[in-house]
Design brief:
By secondary structure, this protein is an alpha+beta fold. Helix content is about 30%, strand content about 30%. The chain has helices at about 10-20, 30-45, 115-130, 150-155, 230-245, 275-290, 315-325, 370-385, 405-420, 435-440, 465-480, and strands at about 45-50, 55-60, 70-75, 100, 105-110, 140-145, 165-170, 175-180, 185-190, 195, 200-210, 245-250, 265-270, 300-305, 310-315, 330-335, 345-355, 360-365, 390-395, 425-430, 445-450, 455, 465. The strands form five sheets. Strands 9, 11, 12, 13, 14, 16, 17, 18 and 19 form a nine-stranded antiparallel sheet that branches. A six-stranded mixed sheet has the order 1-2-6-3-7-21. It has a four-stranded antiparallel sheet with strand order 4-5-23-22.
Length: about 475
């Protein structure tokens, strides 16, 4: 299944992308893919190395007559976000991605596709092998663990790269060029709870939110999608107040940069309240569906009687957890006043997970304004500290400040207009591109980001538009021809 994508155009890009889909490469497990890219380059007779943190760096000499051009770096990341449908059996550390051609789109069979950022990496690899590509001194940088910690960008050392122009190939809307991005910060809260014996007359019910779209917690945060954790805890607060429900365990979300699609909890209630409780679940499902009728048509909220656990959380700890999660900020906080339709600041309640006396709650806060990012993170910290949680912040990375006077931006703008008869949209993105980190190490780089059209990244609905890939690769080759002479 899936090999038919190698016949799509441009063939070099799709062949490389297919090869990447056959190498398991979830975040924290992309070393084999990075080693494959290194050997691919060496097979072309090119210099290729792995740096201290695991990034792959390839150098390709200029084509004849282009030796005096400014050096260019093509950059993308090797890892992908591992998400799958609830009924899909797939081990992201062992199994290949099954690709499917669906009209003008390529998608995966029940999992994330890995087009983010496999398409950008495949295009860079195609340039390395493309005998018709015309370019000056060229370097390809493929980084590690962008989706979890940006460790590859963070670990990049000064002096390892010689180019002065960086083309980041990790954007997701063809026809748009990006010159800025949001920074991010992880907020991690930890509750400790006592496990007490379940009351003899109680029964246990598992309640579950499922069928949500989820998606990228930056790119998709403004689409009005539901957060499974927020919906679940909204009901848990009601259940605790009206049925004296005791919380045994709760789990929701599994990736810091993905809007959680599913969440479930086991609660205990008096057996006499079972019928009323089940009716309340149905009423909440109707309410949730009505509130998200235009964005979450597959939303389901279900309840089933399960084996009664021996213990539950102590009531005070459960109440503190429920109130903090229910009350914390989530979603779009503020839109940009400078750029139309751009989210400035947001928060994603990404993960809630309880186990053996500890419940962890994890957020990813994003903003193109560092002080606003810090303020929202601080407000979340305040809420959870008041509820008795331990709170730590980590993974802070800066945004990328737009430079409308960028020389490479003007080249992209003029080249796109010449090729396709219209100007590209110049935008910033509410997501964490590695450009923001790398410019701290290489402050003189001139940078722009662009890519093919990828919809619903970080979810099993992820898909890439086939015609947009051809336009993206054509644009990339023409930009490389147009790079200025070294001054």
């Amino acid at each position: 299944m899936g090999k038919e994508i190698t016949q799509l155009k441009p063939q070099g890009v799709w062949e490389n992308f297919y090869a990447l889909t056959q190498i398991p490469r979830p975040s924290l497990h992309a070393h084999n893919a990075l080693e494959y890219i290194k050997k691919f380059a060496e097979g072309l007779g090119l210099e290729a190395v792995r740096d201290e943190v695991g990034n792959t760096i390839v150098r390709k000499p200029a084509t004849p007559g282009m030796e005096n051009r400014v050096g260019v770096i093509l950059q993308g990341h090797a890892d992908m976000v591992p998400q799958k449908d609830d009924n899909k059996k797939h081990d992201f550390e062992k199994d290949a991605i099954e690709t499917v051609v669906d009209g003008d789109w390529v998608k995966a069979n029940g999992t994330t596709l890995g087009a983010d950022n496999g398409m950008g990496v495949a295009a860079a690899m195609a340039i390395l092998a493309d005998k018709d590509a015309v370019h000056g001194p060229l370097e390809v940088l493929v980084t590690i663990d962008e989706e979890t910690s940006m460790a590859g960008a963070e670990g990049l050392k000064k002096g390892e790269l010689n180019g002065k122009i960086l083309l980041n190939l990790d954007s997701e809307t063809e026809g748009e060029a990006y010159i800025g991005c949001a920074g991010g910060l992880d907020v991690n809260a930890k509750f400790h709870y006592a496990e007490i014996e379940t009351a003899e007359e109680d029964i246990a019910i598992k309640v579950k939110i499922s069928g949500l779209h989820g998606g990228h917690s930056g790119m998709d945060i403004a689409l009005g999608r539901a957060n499974a954790n927020k919906l679940l805890f909204r009901f848990l607060k009601f259940a605790a107040a009206n049925y004296e429900a005791m919380l045994s365990e709760v789990h929701g979300g599994n990736m810091r940069n993905a809007i959680p699609r599913e969440a479930w909890a086991t609660v205990t209630i008096d057996s006499e309240d079972k019928e009323d409780f089940m009716e309340a679940v149905e009423e909440f499902e109707d309410m949730f569906r009505a509130e998200y009728a235009s964005t979450e048509q597959g939303l389901a909220f279900t309840a089933e009687v399960v084996e009664t656990p021996k213990t539950v959380m102590d009531e005070m700890s459960a109440d503190d957890l429920i109130n903090a999660v229910h009350g914390c900020p989530n979603g779009v906080i503020r839109m940009s006043a400078e750029m139309c339709d751009l989210v400035e600041t947001s928060s994603n309640l990404a993960i809630v997970d309880s186990n053996k006396g500890i419940t962890e709650v994890k957020f990813l806060v994003r903003s193109s304004v560092d002080t606003a990012k810090d303020d929202i993170a601080s407000s979340i910290e305040s809420i959870f500290r008041l509820a008795g949680a331990e709170v730590e912040m980590s993974g802070d990375y800066p945004g990328w400040k737009p430079n409308p006077q960028s020389e490479i931006l003007h080249i992209v703008d003029d080249t796109y207009n010449r090729l396709f008869g219209k100007k590209p949209e110049i935008r910033a993105v509410h997501a964490g591109l590695e450009c923001g980190i790398m410019v701290g190490t290489y402050p003189d780089w001139d940078m722009v980001s662009f890519g093919p059209t990828i919809e619903h990244p970080h979810s099993p609905s992820e898909r890439v538009n086939i015609p947009s890939v051809d336009k993206f690769y054509t644009l990339l080759k023409e930009i490389l021809k147009s790079v200025p002479v070294e001054k």
